[in-house]
Write a structure and sequence with these properties.
The protein contains 4 helices and 6 strands; from the N terminus they run H-E-H-E-E-E-E-E-H-H. It has one domain. The longest helix is centred in the last third of the chain and has 16 residues, at about 105-120. The protein is of the alpha+beta class. A hairpin with a 2-residue loop joins strand 3 (about 50-55) and strand 4 (about 55-60).
C-alpha cells in the first residue's frame, strides 16, 4: 500500500512539469444510427507531427498546426488516416478560410472540395460522378 502512495505522490509532484503534445478527441455518435447508441468516435491530435499525405507523416514545420490520426474502416483498405487539424475540423485548408456560419449544404460542398483535392485517390467519385458515400466524411469537417 505504501509503495502505491509514494508512486502517486511522485506522479503528482511531477504533474506541473508535464507537457502534452497530444490530445484525445472524443466525438459524438455520427449519423442516424448514432442517435440510438451511446458510442462515439475517438481520434488522436498530435501537435508536432504533420501529414505529407493521409498515410505519410513527418515532423511539422513552423506555423503548422499538427495532424489528427483516426481509424476508419472501408477507406481504401487503410486502418488509419492522418488529416491536418484545420481540414479535419473545418474542411478548409487554412484558418482564414473557416466560414463564420455553415449549413449542411455548405459542409457537404467543403468536404467534397477537400476530398477532390487531397483524398480522391483513396475516395473516388461513384460511377455517376457524384461524391462517394461512406465514412470519409468523418475525416473532413468533423
Amino acid at each position: 500500500m505504501s509503495i502505491i502512495v509514494v508512486t502517486l505522490g511522485l506522479l503528482a509532484g511531477c504533474a506541473p512539469l508535464a507537457r502534452a503534445d497530444a490530445a484525445l478527441l472524443l466525438e459524438e455518435p455520427y449519423g442516424h444510427f448514432g442517435a440510438f447508441t451511446a458510442t462515439g468516435h475517438a481520434a488522436v491530435y498530435l501537435t508536432n507531427i504533420c501529414a505529407d499525405s493521409p498515410t505519410q507523416l513527418r515532423r511539422c514545420r513552423n506555423e503548422e498546426a499538427g495532424v489528427v490520426i483516426s481509424r476508419y474502416n472501408k477507406i481504401a483498405g487503410r486502418d488509419w488516416l492522418a488529416i491536418p487539424l484545420i481540414p479535419y475540423l473545418y474542411a478548409v485548408e487554412e484558418s482564414d478560410e473557416i466560414p463564420l456560419f455553415a449549413n449542411p449544404k455548405l459542409v457537404s460542398f467543403l468536404r467534397n472540395q477537400y476530398r477532390r483535392k487531397h483524398l480522391e485517390s483513396m475516395v473516388a467519385d461513384d460511377p455517376a460522378g457524384e461524391p462517394a458515400e461512406g465514412n470519409w466524411t468523418q475525416l473532413v469537417g468533423a
